[in-house]
Design goal:
Layout (H helix, E strand, L loop, with lengths): L1 E4 L9 E3 L3 E8 L3 E8 L2 E8 L1 E6 L2 E5 L4 E4 L2 E8 L7 E8 L1 H10 L18 E4 L3 H16 L4 H15 L5 H24 L6 H8 L3 H12 L3 H19 L4 H7 L5 H12 L3 H7 L1
Parallel strand pairs: 1-4
Antiparallel strand pairs: 2-3, 3-10, 4-9, 5-8, 5-10, 6-7, 6-9, 8-11
Amino acid sequence: MIIQVPEHFSKNKDILTLENLSFLYYFNRNKTDKINVQLNKHMLLHVFNGSKIIVNDGLTHKITDKQSVFLSKGQYFMSEILSLEKLHFDGIMVFFDDSFLFSIFHKYEHLMKHSNSKQALDVDALCILEDSQALHETMLSTKSYLERKSDDTALIQLKFEEIFLQLLQTNHSHEIVHYFQALYNSSLYKLRDLFENNTFTTVDEMIKESNLSEVQFRKVFKEMYDVTPKEWLLHKSLKKAKQLLETKELNVTEVCYECGFHSISWFIKSFKKEFGMTPKKYQQNC
């Protein structure tokens, strides 16, 4: 059986879900066998008591009390070892999607500038962090928010930013920067693949499929292509029109509507501006 996380915990009374971020205080008194876990979001786990066993790509990792680990989206095998002293396992899980990753990265981009991994794309599935007392105390305060069932969502979201900034103050700051940079670049690559290998007719369709807010989408898109989404869509439609004209199977009017243009005059004007001649002239020259 494959456990879908964080959906598996959606009915847990101690989970707090925001728009693109979820906090869960996880407590278990029973020994668990290895479970097949599919992470649909990225996750930060901080262990209070006991140990978490995580298997990925044939490698086994043990996360003990006061340690933290980042896990990128993907499939893992997990089990837990109860604390010999407390006789239970507990910890904080923070789930975040690409939208939150982009917002954090852009907000604190100045803290990433020391990384030499700007082109990093391959993301290590795990990034394990040794115990940090400051981070541990921040996680304990986060636990208290969850236990009090605070409804101050803005404050809860700031808690994760506090956790992130705490991590950048540890001895693992370069490791964290590298991991987030690679995670960020990998997410950009997946977005680029989404845009270029699917047919979109409007910017709204692209925003919806990207799972980003409109502000984030436009900022990320500008970073990737250095043009507006509308300009990019027009260029892609004209490129498709050019290819169809070369086959000579469709006339100019048919190509116009096949490529999503609703006005033949606008199509001709745009095509001439892009390629220096009218569609009809281009087709005749092919």
